[in-house]
Amino acid sequence: MGVEIKESGVSEEEFARMKRFVRDYLTASVESESDGGRMRWYPWHSAEYRFNHILNVVELGAKIAREEGADVDTVKVAALFHDISKLEADQDEHADEGARVAREYLTAHGDFPESFVESVCQAVEDHSYQGPLSDVSLETQCLMEADILDKVGANGTALMLLRMGYEARSHMDAATMVERVLERGREHTSRLESDTATSLAHQRLKRVKWFREWLEAEVTEMDVDDPML
Question: Per-residue pLDDT averaged across 155-175, rounded?
Answer without folding.
Answer: 71
